[in-house]
Amino acid sequence: MHVLVTGGAGYIGSHTVRELIKAGHRVVILDNLSRGHREAVAVLQKTTPAGTLDFVPGDTGDHALVSGLLQERGIEAVLHFAAHSQVGESVERPELYYRNNVVHGLSLLDTVREGGVKYFIFSSTAAVYGEPVEVPVSEEHPVVPANPYGATKLAFEGALRWYGRAGGPRWMALRYFNAAGADPDGDLGEDHRPETHLIPLVLQAALGLRPAISIFGTDYPTPDGTCIRDYIHVTDLAVAHVLALHALVRGAAPAAYNLGNGSGYSVLEVVRAAEAVTGRSIPVRHTGRRAGDPAVLVAGARQAGQMLGWRPRFADLRTIIDTAWRWHQKHPAGFETV
Ligand code: UDP
């Protein structure tokens, strides 16, 4: 199948492009490189068979460009990753999130519906749930986003649902918990500017690129007082997208599924596991809570297993950190080190 992947130069998008091509699909990446990396595209082009991958720089909101691509390439499925994804930034600059994630997203969806594309997979997030009232968080949990990032992702899920009933594509939305790790081949990985995620920050501290890691809050109602999260390997997320696409092709009903391991680790447990993996000591500094952080966020992800046949391969926290460590050691300055 010929697949359009928006945001394919980004972290989860680039890993998914690799898995799509491994599964025998052809891919066109559409990415404006505002957050993604041209070097990630170059790595993918170097490591995939000739003729399986094309890169088009541009915006999801560019109707003429996207419409032309859909027609010329005979695109049957769109996997939509292109979005802003930082919670803190979304609180400070909601207009960026509504414009990019909702306005441009809707333009893409209009173009996709006009173009008769059959399948649509959406990169969603556990942030749609907001502060959990019950853990593990299943798909039946109320959706009350606590920040504009989650609100814009939920708004787009709603559009998918209603467009789908009105002649739009058949869709699935995949709600990620904490994406982490790197492709086991070591040439794709996480490179956000600025970096705000725990595991890359911890590994940068292990490399001596940061003096210490700040622990955001030690007074949460958890066994060691630090927040608990469900870390899920990026390649496991990538594979879930391929399975979701194949399920839609087989006739599966549109739905939103959680993607997580179903087990939680505290911030301190992550730091200790990273010390064990790297063999280095990682200095920590206790600072106050970060606004908007729930104490515990762990996925109830049984449905993705049952409906998509998805089984995470890299569920163990140390394995997740080990793959990320290999990437960070080889690429201390991110993709610029390629
Ligand atoms: N965290 C931390 N120090 C940091 C970055 C993150 O203590 O420098 C904590 C954060 O409060 C949260 C967990 O690590 O409890 C995971 O945060 P991250 O930003 O990686 O993902 P999020 O849970 O916000 O999606």
TrEMBL record:
<feature type="domain" description="NAD-dependent epimerase/dehydratase">
    <location>
        <begin position="3"/>
        <end position="260"/>
    </location>
</feature>
<comment type="pathway">
    <text>Carbohydrate metabolism; galactose metabolism.</text>
</comment>
<protein>
    <recommendedName>
        <fullName>UDP-glucose 4-epimerase</fullName>
        <ecNumber>5.1.3.2</ecNumber>
    </recommendedName>
</protein>
<dbReference type="GO" id="GO:0003978">
    <property type="term" value="F:UDP-glucose 4-epimerase activity"/>
</dbReference>
<comment type="similarity">
    <text>Belongs to the NAD(P)-dependent epimerase/dehydratase family.</text>
</comment>
<dbReference type="GO" id="GO:0033499">
    <property type="term" value="P:galactose catabolic process via UDP-galactose, Leloir pathway"/>
</dbReference>
<dbReference type="InterPro" id="IPR005886">
    <property type="entry name" value="UDP_G4E"/>
</dbReference>
<keyword id="KW-0520">NAD</keyword>
<keyword id="KW-0299">Galactose metabolism</keyword>
<dbReference type="InterPro" id="IPR036291">
    <property type="entry name" value="NAD(P)-bd_dom_sf"/>
</dbReference>
<dbReference type="InterPro" id="IPR001509">
    <property type="entry name" value="Epimerase_deHydtase"/>
</dbReference>
<keyword id="KW-0413">Isomerase</keyword>
<comment type="subunit">
    <text>Homodimer.</text>
</comment>
<dbReference type="Pfam" id="PF01370">
    <property type="entry name" value="Epimerase"/>
</dbReference>
<keyword id="KW-0119">Carbohydrate metabolism</keyword>
